[in-house]
Amino acid sequence: MIRRSPLRYTLHVGLPKCASTSIQAYFSDNYKKHLLQGVFYPHEGRLRAGYRSHLPLFTDFEKLDARLDSIQRKARWLRAHRVVLSTEAIMDRIPSGVHAQCLLHTLDRLGRENVDVIAVSRAPSGLIRSSYDQFLMAGLWEIDRQKLFDTSEARIEDFLNAFKDLWGFELKEIDKIFPLFAERYNVSRIVEIPLAADGDHVLSRIAKEVGLKSADKLPVKNAGRSTRKILMFRDFQKEHGVATFERNLRVLKQVRFPKRELSTEEAYELGLMLPKEVNTLLDKNYMAETRIHEFP
To answer: Is 3 part of any domain?
Structure first.
């Protein structure tokens, strides 16, 4: 009797603002191509448009077992050897533990020994800048947007202080999130993959991790937003509040600005970004190499 080897699972958990949308689009767009190599990016428990992540899988506990059963059945039927699941929301929402019940149950059901956890990181300056922009547009890192607008000017420095108050470490010390994640979810190993400027290294490494023979160039999603638009988003929320901003976001996104962006100096004076010399210091000791984090 031939014994089938157990399915392996790759759980991509973030980090936020580290090409998650592009990675999800890559696996979704190449679904059939990857199946020929035994890699399955399931539709079950996944958003079908926009952010094609598996956030729904980790949101509805009542449907979780049925969805996991379906994923396993389809993987076997398709003769896949690897299942890839992806959502950066897990790492983003550690403080509240909003996805804890679903993730802990998933790890137990699949067998922790069968699950490989990967996380994509990037240089501190880029993570800080993109996190702040995303926070102003839709919130991030579970920081209370309305509270920040009520108690400060919501400059990038205020955002960083709020992050430290909530998480217990500075955003530039993002490495500290890995032991926090491991402790919360009883994970013994996390592979950290750096995001290179062109995105090629991260995709080739992920392809290697999941057993793909090769990887195409990473599709570009969520490109950086206009500094003028980010300033408008912040000013609108300061004057009218977050709830009114969210109701009008679709219209605000359509506002056009002159082609000339704010200069780095202007953006710094307005509190939209950190000074160039600070960014240089932040990235001085950053090493863009894959690292294995192991925990007892």
So the answer is: no
Beta bridge pairs of residue 190? 117, 293
The answer to whether position 45 is within a domain reads yes
How far apart, in whole angstroms, are the C-alpha atoms of residue 238 and residue 244? Answer: 11
* Structural domain span for residue 152: 8-294
Distance CA(71)–CA(45), nearest Å, equals 9
DSSP state of 256: -
Domain count, the chain: 1
Cβ atoms of 142 and 296 closer than 8 Å? no
Assigned domain for 2 exists? no
Residue 87: which CATH number? 3.40.50
The answer to the question of residue 56 being in a domain is yes
Q: What is the pLDDT along the chain (296 residues), one digit of tens a residue?
A: 344 567 999 999 999 999 999 899 999 999 999 999 999 999 999 998 888 999 999 999 999 999 999 999 999 999 999 999 999 999 999 999 999 999 999 999 999 999 999 999 999 999 999 999 999 999 999 999 999 999 999 999 999 999 999 999 999 999 999 999 999 999 999 999 998 755 557 888 898 899 998 766 655 555 567 899 999 999 999 999 999 999 999 999 898 877 788 998 999 999 999 999 999 999 988 888 889 999 98
**Global pTM exceeds 0.85:** yes
- Beginning with the edge strand found earlier in the chain, give each strand of the sheet holding 291-294 in spatial order: 39-40, 82-86, 8-12, 115-121, 189-194, 291-294
Q: Which residues contact 153 (CB under 8 A, 6 or more apart)?
A: 238, 271
User: Which residue has 């039927």 as its token pair?
Assistant: 77
Between CA 9 and CA 284 the distance in angstroms is 35
